[in-house]
Amino acid sequence: WGEWFDPSLGQGMQKAEGHMWSDFYDVFEILGKGTFGEVVKSWKRSTGEMVAIKILKNDSYRSRIIKNELKLLQTMSEVDTEAAHIVQFHEFFHDELKFYLVFELLEQNLFDFQKEHNFSPLAVRHIRTVTTQVLRALAKLKELSIIHADLKPENIMLVDQVRFPFRVKVIDFGSASIFSEVRYVKEPYIQSRFYRAPEILLGLPFCEKVDVWSLGCVMAELHLGWPLYPGNNEYDQIRYICETQGMPRPTLLNAARKAHLFFKRSQHPEVANSWQLKTPAEFLADTKVKSMERRKYMLKSLDQMETVNIHKMIYPDTEAVAEYFDLRSMATSSQIRSTFRTHRPAAPNPASCLSRQCSRDAKGLPAGERSSLPFRVPRPREMLAARCPLRARTPLAHEATLCPHFDPLVVREHQRKKSRR
């Protein structure tokens, strides 16, 4: 067990076995620690199987969380986890001090994968692969009337990157809920802030579609190499969204319980939108909380995502045009029919994923020059230069701009630790 062995973990498991458990587990490594507990890599002696064990302290607050998660895991017990891209749950046990949830062992979450690759933008074809699988997971959760409520790169796991590149599964149902049991936010917060849907931010009724908003934010982050909306607080989160996607409709703000925290009534009755976003100075005066600029790119619309990192594209031949069309498709798909304005986001339907959008875009190419997922048929280099605006290009007026206040030395781990609130 070496330096990673935690005697308290081993003793706890042996004690549980002595009272009610038939298997011993050897703890090899701590995989991660979070707000509510930790996850360890363990070996199940009876089967020789490597598993991941989620360990939580046994207290009244965590007991309620565990009870909720176990109920949802039981709901998913008959699900084909491979087809649904959901982590497989094995078993549960506890002692007087701790709870133990045993899951299949997966390789690495998407945030750690990004960190390992220096937060380089991920090729859109890989983002599409990941997105399709997560949409399948969300579609299955919708069938089971479950809201995940904490979708983010840390909760999307790569299964085995060498054997199955970019095959992923969704994990962590500690914040999940059943539709019928939740309508408004009951906890101080749900969803990590960077991926928090407008309904949650504003205190509006919500449903499973908040997960689709989170997925759109994850898609953008994989492409940008940085969170799309890395707000330092909920006001910054709202401000970023408004600057990118426009103001929400007045009817939504009229119904929102938290609208007064971020918006003010217009002093001019003749103005069509009676609400205005507070300025950072006004928010500071009201709350003593300072607004901060943490974005890497200043986007005036989500369409500008197709221009981000475009200068880095040096793919040969059809790789360039494929990536270009993929970028256009992703910019369209990431908008998720803006919950912020319509309050009716897209449903988590895999059929609406990027692959079909890319296929539609490819129809603009001559026959024989297109294929699906993505375009791979070689063609003369001069045709590529004529069709793809990636070579010898000049900056466009509508391109995204790098934030002048962006500090590349900001420690992302510290920022993400605070993003939960």
UniProtKB/TrEMBL annotation:
Keywords: ATP-binding, Kinase, Nucleotide-binding, Serine/threonine-protein kinase, Transferase. PROSITE patterns: PROTEIN_KINASE_ATP (PS00107), PROTEIN_KINASE_DOM (PS50011), PROTEIN_KINASE_ST (PS00108). Residues 25-314 form the Protein kinase domain. SUPFAM superfamilies: Protein kinase-like (PK-like). It comes from the Eukaryota. One of its GO terms (molecular function) is protein tyrosine kinase activity. ATP binds at K54. GO terms for cellular component: cytoplasm; nucleus. The keyword Nucleotide-binding applies. Belongs to the protein kinase superfamily. This is Homeodomain interacting protein kinase 4.
